[in-house]
Amino acid sequence: MIPLQELLILSGVLFAIGLIGAITRRNIIMILLSLEILLAAVNLAFVAFSYSLGDLAGQVVVFFVMIVAAAEVTVGLAIAVVLVRQFNKTEADDLRILRW
Amino acid sequence: MEQTSLLFYILSSFAIAGALGVIMARHPVYAVLSLVAALFSLSGIFLLLHAYFVAAIQVLVYAGAILVLFLFVVMLVDMAPERLFRLRTNMLNLGGALFGLVLLWEIVVAACFFTIAPPATGAGTEGTTAAVGALLFTRYALPFEVASLLLLAGIIGAIVLAKKRL
Lengths: 100, 166
Prior knowledge:
The complex is a heterodimer. Chain A has helices spanning 4-24, 28-53, 57-87. Chain A has 3 helices and no strands. The termini of chain A are far apart. Chain A has one domain (4-94): Helix Hairpins. Helix content of chain A is 78%, strand content 0%. Chain B is 78% helix and 0% strand. Chain B starts with a helix and ends with a helix. Chain B folds into 2 domains: 1-104, Up-down Bundle (Four Helix Bundle (Hemerythrin (Met), subunit A)); 123-166. Chain B has 7 helices and no strands. Chains A and B meet through α1, α2 and α3 of A and α1, α2, α3, α5 and α6 of B.
């Protein structure tokens, strides 16, 4: 039986790493990758609680989180491709206008 | 029991190393590959936690589909390497790292003082496909259908964005 504390600490470490990446990187693809780390950390916390509470609902929530992540990545990468095609820029700092 | 604990430490160190590789890699291809490694380690941890269905989905959906999409886009976009190397100014880097570390400290403190009622240790904690699927199609049937709607919206959004003329 793995203690819940250690699982939560691992989840927190992964979340902090992903947050640091999302703040400090400027390439939009790297920001999307950091968001994936954040979602994975949250998934780990859900599975950990599901494990220690003996309730499968947490794993169902993880399933839904994965669906949301898939939709987010699909649209986010499509936006990245459009940005590269239209402006030839992939850095978030360069994207300041709110129109095409 | 001892083996489970040892395996957990090995897998979690792999996961943390992979996540650090993602945010420190200079080229996005390496970052995507480190994320694959981290997610594989996480799916191993899910297996240790008896979440078999979630572990399989993690490998199939994340490593198999989402990260292949990432790799595809990274190679399609063909970013100039020197623009990738440039991080933000040191000030912002430091601020981001500090912010993340403060959050980490908060989470660790919260987790250390966190206590939970002892688990029921009853049946039904094994996250097999049958068990999760039964729950998914009975109690969570409505969220399941809403999720399919979300995926449909995502598909349509991607198609609209990929059109030649916006």
